[in-house]
Fold this protein.
Amino acid sequence: MKKIVLDDKAIERALARVAHEIIERNKGTENLVILGIPTRGYHLALRLRKKIEEIEGVTLPVGAVDATLYRDDLAIKKDQPSLKRMEIPPVDGRKVVMVDDVLFTGRTIRAAMNALMDFGRPVAIQLAVLVDRGHRELPIKADYIGKNLPTARKEGVKVHLTETEGVDEVVVEPAPVEGK
Amino acid sequence: MRLKRKDLLGIEDLSREEIELLLTTAASFKEVSEREIKKVPTLRGKTVINLFYEASTRTRTSFEIAAKRMSADAVNISVSTSSVVKGETLRDTARNLEAMRPDCIVVRHASSGTPHMLAGYVGCSVVNAGDGAHEHPSQALLDMLTVRERKGTLEGLKIAIIGDIAHSRVARSNIYGFTKMGSRVTVAGPPTMLPAGMEKLGCSVTSNVEEALKGADVIMMLRIQMERQSESFFPTVREYSRVYGLDEAKLKRAKDDVIILHPGPINRGVEISSEVADGPYSLILDQVTNGVAVRMAIFYLLLGAAKEDQQVQAGKA
């Protein structure tokens, strides 16, 4: 049975808090760029921009950083993942807030950081995620977390957004039964 | 998504879905060539051998650049300076190259079917970069990408392919490709250069260029291949140019927003006039740019994923 752990209101509140934290931590919005990791991280980046705009009256540049070509698991995967949106505004000397939906092993973030470095040299990279579900395989930590969600490794965590699935929710799916 | 193939030998055996996958992937790869650092680490540690038994600038350079932008190592073998001149057979050359463990061999040969034969000898991927008068799949893919970019779709377009159809592998691959994607293809050229039975490939055939150009959305001019003219197929180059060459007068028969392609190298003033080749309808250089993206996509889809026996459980599974 799948279990809804965040509904639309909870997601809304979590993003509002993360937006405030970003502004507080950076003492404003000066020099900030928001980069989402497609597909859902990009939609979350757009939502964060809107929230920050409502609070500070400043519209930040938003971009998309596709980590696909930098992944370390291409050679062990059966299928090649298809490429997604790659749109990087100038990042030299900027503070970049990377946004993703779920932080799990940390490998996607590693790949996204490498991709970003090919486009320039940001003065800092911060990480915002809607859900941190643990089980890191790399020394990577999020600066802004919508919800800490302790999970078993084999469980599935899915973020659904109105932009992509027509509904805002975070669900946990049980581990698949062995032999199935 | 995955291209479930070891080799890319021709457009004839690709499905419409596979062509879509290749074109969509290639469109995404264009961005890499626009960057300041034009390189992604995706195929690090892979080796690509370019084995060209025929002259080539565009295709060989394009495959080489594509491999390098994906971080694969590319090695070029030009046959005129290789052991082939000492009489080594294709089979022995292939098996020796394979002993050096490449991941892909890109081959061009004057005989149709060579890449298919090679693919049977070696375990690594084989990409056909042109075999005789048979197929040139990467060229057809870059042509389709160029047209799709400009027209939004390939469905329902009228494509005129004009020139030496008999000797043209570009024509054959494009007929297969465009008809699979829902375009209507008409081929035209001197009767001596129109082989019997072309209609069976799903295109219309005419020796009247003006008829082929009428209402065309896309005109693809083919090169007159002087190196293959062992017997003469037309009286003089001047006459060919006058009747079959594309100039501004003939161009008026096509649609107002027609686009013109040519696989290169162009013979200026023979199959295409300089005004037309350098004019606003010509996408000849866009084709070359797209060629790199298409070949990056081919390498990504053929070499990017694990081989069946190498698959291990990925972290998330």
